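From the methods appendix. Each design record in this collection lists the tokenized structure first, followed by the designed amino acid sequence. Records were kept in a plain field format so they could be parsed without special tools. The example shown here is representative of the layout used throughout.

RECORD:
FOLD TOKENS (301 positions):
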């Protein structure tokens, strides 16, 4: 069993070494092109930093190797999550962080094996693999948290933004002008995504496609329903102002329902801290002196 585990670890290490160190034809072409386009810097010209010259291409090469190992569907999902999180980091950088995290925790597991005497058994091997997977999954946990925070911020800003859109449209502005006014007045991630959508519309993209991508980019259900209502109103020729008024009222109703749901969940969530933290301390304060007095009474008798 130990021999089989050692062979599995050896094959895994060899696969990773071959994946990250063997240069392919594309890497050779890139290096030749870089040598062909190399130039000298003038005395007053700023020289790129060490990170731009060395670390950047190195990390890009590692990201390319990770791209080759992962399926296309998984890369698309990760890219969509990064967009919904506001693109705090590029896809290449995120994959490199995942690889580095998995390597660091895997090395920590191997160091634990070495510290225990070097005995490789099934439990230690399983622990090492578990730590490696945890290290690679930690960036995904952080990314999911960023997505939830951004979606919460978008959801909170939607009612006021919809009211402003409705007021602008009923005052005589067009839908694009009303959206531009919202992007100018409202602050937050929704305004940023809306600005991107307006730039796409200004560059010639159809409004329906740009609005659908806005809903897909944020991943907020209320915004998706709002976009679908606007597109349907334009296709059927109904009054956009009336549709916006109805959507604003429904948005505020859903926000009130979410607040009531959160308030109703509070007593249930308070049970565990109450039972585990508050009640034991309360029992100690109330019953503690009586228990001490009873103990002294019985010991004196």
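DESIGN:
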């Amino acid at each position: 069993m130990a021999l089989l585990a050692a062979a599995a670890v050896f094959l895994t290490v060899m696969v990773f070494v071959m994946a990250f160190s063997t240069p392919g034809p594309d890497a050779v072409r890139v290096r030749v092109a870089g040598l062909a386009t190399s130039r000298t810097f003038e005395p007053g010209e700023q020289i790129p930093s060490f990170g731009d010259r060395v670390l950047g291409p190195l990390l890009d090469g590692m990201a390319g190797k990770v791209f080759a190992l992962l399926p296309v569907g998984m890369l698309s999902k990760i890219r969509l999550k990064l967009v919904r999180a506001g693109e705090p980091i590029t896809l290449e950088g995120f994959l490199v962080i995942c690889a580095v995290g998995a390597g660091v925790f895997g090395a920590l597991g191997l160091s634990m094996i070495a510290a225990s005497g070097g005995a490789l058994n099934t439990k230690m091997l399983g622990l090492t693999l578990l730590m490696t997977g945890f290290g690679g999954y930690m960036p995904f946990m952080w990314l999911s948290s960023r997505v939830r925070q951004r979606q919460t911020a978008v959801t909170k800003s939607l009612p006021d933004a919809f009211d402003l859109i409705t007021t602008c449209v009923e005052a005589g502005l067009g839908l694009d002008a009303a959206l531009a006014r919202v992007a100018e007045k409202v602050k937050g991630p929704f305004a940023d995504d809306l600005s991107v959508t307006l730039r796409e519309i200004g560059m010639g993209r159809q409004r329906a496609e740009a609005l659908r991508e806005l809903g897909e980019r944020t991943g907020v259900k209320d915004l998706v329903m709002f976009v679908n209502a606007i597109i349907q109103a334009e296709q059927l020729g109904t009054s956009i102002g009336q549709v916006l008024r109805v959507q604003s009222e429904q948005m505020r109703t859903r926000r009130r329902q979410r607040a009531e749901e959160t308030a109703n969940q509070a007593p249930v969530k308070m049970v565990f801290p109450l039972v585990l933290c508050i009640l034991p301390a309360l029992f100690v304060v109330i019953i503690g002196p009586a228990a001490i007095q009873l103990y002294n009474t019985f010991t004196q008798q």
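APPENDIX NOTE: The chain has two domains: 2-20+55-150, 152-255.
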